[in-house]
């Protein structure tokens, strides 16, 4: 109908005018007078350790100032895993394989040797990145990406059955939700001390003890994000590359 087309065109025109007006009212690109440069950034730089409890400003922003957003991010990642598993299912022990395994071509001895040597080093570096996120560059998301990449490299070299043997499903499932658990547990711990959710500076403690508790709370969340992130990436890849090969069972009715 013509009136429906007219309504659509009119609505889009009004929306376009509102957007054009909003763009015209925005400060010029790179201006020093924008609210973020006048208020937000100076506060982060000057009061991050005092208010957020982290020496690393980035950690303070991610886990405190925008902690609800980060908690939402880890929940979205976990939800993505649930969606993938619901559609594609989990791998099955001794039945699932990948396209590389199905090709039947053995991997180069040089590749296998290099991967065996590098994967433990990469995992060790991932742990380092997770544990140093509170005081220096690093953090859970970065460490989790490194963990997932190392396991994917191992899978490409040795195949899916070997990887699921090293990291079985029963071991991965409890760790996939640990990031959400870490956020909730540390958030409610702060509330028990009478402060807001995801507040890491707890009252009623001595200076040294408060510093130690703050470090442990932040580190627990960082490690939780890293471990869960790495395991979730791994489980998603395992679900996407798996091909189930069911063994033919003899027909006993004809014997």
Concise summary:
With 255 residues, this protein is mainly α.
Architecture overview:
With 255 residues, the chain is an all-alpha fold. It has one domain. It contains 11 helices and 2 strands. A two-stranded antiparallel sheet has the order 1-2. The longest helix is centred in the last third of the chain and has 35 residues, at 207-241. The radius of gyration is 25 Å and the shape is globular. The model is unreliable at 247-255 (pLDDT under 50).
Major sheet characteristics:
2 strands, antiparallel
**Helix percentage:** over 70%
The number of helical segments is 11
Q: Numbering strands along the chain, what is their spatial order in the largest sheet? A: 1-2
User: What's the number of extended β-strand segments?
Assistant: 2
Mean pLDDT: 83
**Could you list the spans in which at least 5 consecutive residues all have pLDDT below 50?**
247-255
Distance between the termini: 71 Å
C-alpha-based Rg, rounded:
25 Å
Strand content: under 5%
Structural class: mainly alpha
Q: Helices and strands, in N-to-C order? A: HHHHEHHHHHHHE
The shape is: globular
Number of domains: 1
């Amino acid at each position: 109908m013509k009136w429906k087309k007219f309504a659509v065109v009119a609505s889009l025109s009004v929306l376009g005018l509102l957007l054009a007006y909003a763009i015209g009212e925005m400060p010029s690109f790179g201006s020093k007078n924008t609210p973020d440069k006048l208020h937000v950034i100076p506060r982060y730089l000057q009061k991050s350790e005092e208010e957020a409890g982290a020496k690393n400003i980035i950690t303070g922003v991610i886990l405190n100032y925008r902690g609800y957003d980060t908690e939402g991010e880890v929940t979205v990642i976990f939800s993505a895993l649930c969606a993938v598993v619901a559609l594609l299912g989990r791998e099955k022990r001794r039945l699932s394989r990948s396209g590389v395994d199905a090709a039947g071509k053995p991997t180069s001895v040089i590749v296998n040797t290099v991967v065996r040597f590098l994967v433990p080093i990469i995992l060790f570096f991932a742990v380092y990145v997770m544990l140093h996120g509170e005081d220096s560059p690093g953090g859970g998301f970065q460490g989790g990406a490194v963990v997932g990449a190392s396991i994917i490299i191992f899978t490409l070299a040795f195949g899916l059955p070997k990887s699921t043997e090293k990291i079985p499903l029963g071991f991965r499932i409890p760790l996939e939700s640990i990031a959400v658990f870490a956020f909730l547990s540390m958030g409610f711990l702060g509330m028990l001390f009478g402060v807001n959710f995801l507040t890491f500076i707890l009252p009623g403690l001595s200076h040294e003890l408060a510093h130690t508790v703050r470090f442990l709370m932040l580190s627990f969340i960082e490690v939780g994000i890293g471990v869960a992130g790495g395991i979730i990436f791994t489980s998603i890849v395992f679900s996407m590359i798996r091909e189930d090969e069911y063994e033919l069972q003899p027909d006993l009715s004809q014997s």
